[in-house]
Structures are given as structure tokens and as C-alpha cells.
Amino acid sequence: MIGAPKRYNHWKRMEFLVVLVIVLLGSSIKAYGAINQLSWREISNINNQGPYIGIVVPNAFELNPLLQSSSFVPHNKFPYFDFAGRHFRVGELKKKKVIVVMTGESMLNAGLATQLLLTLFNVKGVLHYGIAGNANSKFQIGDVTIPQYWAHTGQWHWQRFGDNGDFNREFGYLKFSDYNNYTKHSKSVKNLLNKVWYQPEKIFPVDGTPEVWQSAFWVPVDKTYFEIARNLKNVELSNCVNKTCLPRKPIVVRVKNGVSANVFVDNKAYRDHLKSKFDVTPTDMESAAVALVCFQQKIPFIAIRALSDLAGGGSALTNEVSIFLSLASQNAFDVLVKFISLL
User: Fold this and answer.
1) Rounded CA gap, 155 and 312, in Å?
2) Is 44 helix (H, G, I), strand (E, B) or coil?
3) Residues 252/339, Cβ–Cβ less than 8 Å
4) Which of 115, 142, 216, 275 counts the highest number of beta carbons within 10 A?
């Protein structure tokens, strides 16, 4: 038995190394954001109550109408789950099981939040609502638009001056010299900024071959959802903020196209360009990102966007969004409530 103490010491050292590896691995897991067992159990408990409708909201002022509404009832056991900087609210809206996440502004935030929602939870469809700029003179501030298609118009190929290059030309361009500001007596000159050509996104469908991408520019919303939206015309919407009222009662309207990019459009020339080039009504900073993730993941999706400003098409002395932001946010939510009641 002379070797026994050696074997005992060997196993004790091995046991110490295993514990050390586990501790280090645990620290690494925590540092890199992987989900621990306790969180997985909580997620499983939430998912066992599903499936849910995911509700994706850009910012706090758009989320407030939901939080202040008696129609939304938080779950009595697990009202929320926090992960990776996101606060996922669990509950019911009009007696439909929902998980609500606020994304924060921009395409990146919207895409990340939507992907986390679909990765963590048992979600059968995604509803996205918020405010938007209006590029279509047929409609007014306060109207709620529901586009059939969304495109990301921030994916550009900026063409070199004097060179054609090799890039996608299917979706057209913005030519800067078309917007040179000169008098009727001056000679038109070329602009060194040349052109930017709109490019499609490259997505990787969940049921496709890994690392084999597909082009996507115009992303359709779910056909069934869009058909249901036909029944939203009679939703009663607000038209006054304090003593400031709109020319007419806002309406709910299905439109053809909406666009998104990491650009807050407050410029009449670019607003008009988007309308003429793409037949756009709402322009925002998130919807196309949500649409692209849902399209990639084969999850039904629709976006409801209330018009809060004229995207630069109004007076240079005023900014409509500062006046009508709360009204537009409430109108978008009111339409969402009616929509979800019809599911």
C-alpha cells in the first residue's frame, strides 16, 4: 500500500484541477454572456407557458402607452426576464400571451433585440409598432400606416467619381449633382460625391445552407397579418395634443412600402427622393431590421407605424415630432391593441 498515498495525492490534485477548471470556465461563461442554469430554468418556465406573440418597440416613449394601459397584464410569476441589456416583459395583451422588448434606437439595436427574442423564447409571430416620418403627402401626422413591404435603404455602394465599378444596380441610385443649389443663370456642374447605389441585404435563412446567403431588399410582411390589418380602418384615434389639433381625424391605412436606415430623415429633398424612388410612406430607423430578422428566421411579422412628423417636409421653423410624438405613439399602440385582438 506504499503507492496509495501517492494515488490519493494524485486524485486530490486532479480534483483540485477539475474544480479550478470549472471555476475558470464559469467565470468565462459569465464574462462572455452565456446563459447560466438558473436563467435557463427561468426561460424554460416562461416557454412552457407559450407560445407567445413578440412585441418589439423602439423607445421608451413608444413603450409607455403599453405600460400605462389596462389591456397589458404582467405575468404573476415571471413578469420579466433580463438578459444582455434587454428587459423582456412577459404578460398578456387583450388576453393574448405576449413578450415585449424595447430595442433602443437604430437598426443594430432593433436587429439584436429581435434576434434575442426569437432565440430565447417560444415566439409564434412578431408585431412591431412605433412612430415614423411621413414621406407621402397623401397622409398627415397622426395617421397610422401598415406597409406591405420594408426595405433597408442604408446599404450603399458609393460610386467612385468617373468610374462605373462592379455592383448591384437593380434598386437605383441617389445622384448628388441633382441636388446642387445653383441659380437659373449658373452652369450645372458635376458633383465629386457622384452617386450612391442602393444595395440589397445578404441574409442567411434559418432553413438554408449555412454561409450561403440570399439577397433581400423588399421584405414582405406576413400575408395573413396584412389581410387582418384590412379590418383596422375604424379604430378611434387621437387628433389633439392639449389645444393643438390636427386638420382631420387620423386614419389607419395599409400602404405599399416603408423604409428604414440609421438616418433620422429631416430633409425635404431626401424625403422627396425616397418617395419618388421607392413609393415610400413611413421612414424610420428600426422596422426593416426587425423585418429582416423575422424573414430570415421564417417568423410572421408586421409593423404598425404612426406618422409623427413630415421628415423635413414641413416648416423650417418647427419640428412636428416634438409636438405630436406622444399622440403618434398612442395611436400606434391603439392600432396594435385592436390588431392583436383580431388574432
Assistant:
1) 22
2) helix
3) no
4) 142
Residue 157 · residue 165 · CB < 8 Å: yes
**55 touches 333 (CB < 8 A):** no
Whole-structure pTM value: 0.86
Q: Which residues contact residue 118 at a Cβ distance below 8 angstroms, ignoring those fewer than 6 apart?
A: 54, 126, 293, 294, 297, 299
Q: Quote the cell numbers at residue 3.
A: 503507492
The amino acid that residue 17 corresponds to is L
Distance (Å, rounded) from C-alpha 153 to C-alpha 217?
8
Backbone angles phi, psi at 39, to 5 degrees: -65, -40
Most distant pair of Cα atoms in the chain: their distance: 108
C-alpha cell at 37: 442554469
Q: Give the amino acid at 102.
A: M
Measured between alpha carbons, how far apart are the two ends of the chain, in Å? 75
- Per DSSP, helices labelled H in the chain are 4-31, 37-48, 60-67, 107-120, 223-228, 268-278, 287-297, 320-341
In tens, the pLDDT along 7-53 reads: 444 444 444 443 333 333 443 334 345 788 888 999 999 999 999 99
Is the bond leading into 250 cis (omega within 30 degrees of zero)? no
Residue burial 254-272, b: 16+ Cβ < 10 Å; e: rest: bbebbbbbebebbeeebbe
C-alpha cell recorded at residue 120: 430565447
Residue with cell 412612430: 131
* Neighbouring C-alpha atoms within 13 Å toward the C-beta of 317: 0
Q: Render pLDDT for 215-265 as a digit per residue (tens, 0 to 9).
A: 999 999 999 999 999 999 999 999 998 888 898 999 999 999 999 999 999
Contact call for residues 278 and 118 (beta carbons, < 8 A)? no
Provide the b/e sequence for 137-166 (b: ≥16 CB within 10 Å): eebbbbbbbbbbbbbbbbbebebeeeeeee
- Beta strand pairing status for 144-152 and 219-220? antiparallel
Name the region of 211 (left: φ>0; alpha: ψ -120 to 50; beta: rest). left
DSSP three-state, residue 175:
strand
